[in-house]
Amino acid sequence: MERSEILVTTTEHIPDHDYEIIGEVFGLTTQSKNVVKNIGAGFKNIVGGEIKAYTELLTEARDIAIDRLRQNAKDMGADAVVMMRFDSDSISADMETVAAYGTAVKFK
Q1: Which has the least CB within 10 A, 6, 9, 48, 55?
Q2: pTM attached to this predicted model
Q3: 66: containing domain
């Protein structure tokens, strides 16, 4: 089974599927943008509006975290992940960490 074939859902139940719980799974990443993009973000902070460099950073971090969550689930022999959630935090002014976590399940 490919990682991308592992169903990831934020719901507790998957309709029309019975499954057993394997355990908790997670994917974690910490990302930072380069100095040039940080300077650009600093200027944008003065005038206001969306700071696209940071939106891109968080989008990239989210995608990596989900991919790692799927890999963790695959390594455990799971078919799906239920109750998936995200958590994020700033480590410093230019670094963000994103965690995707949930419960790995195996279809009966």
Answers
A1: 48
A2: 0.81
A3: 7-107
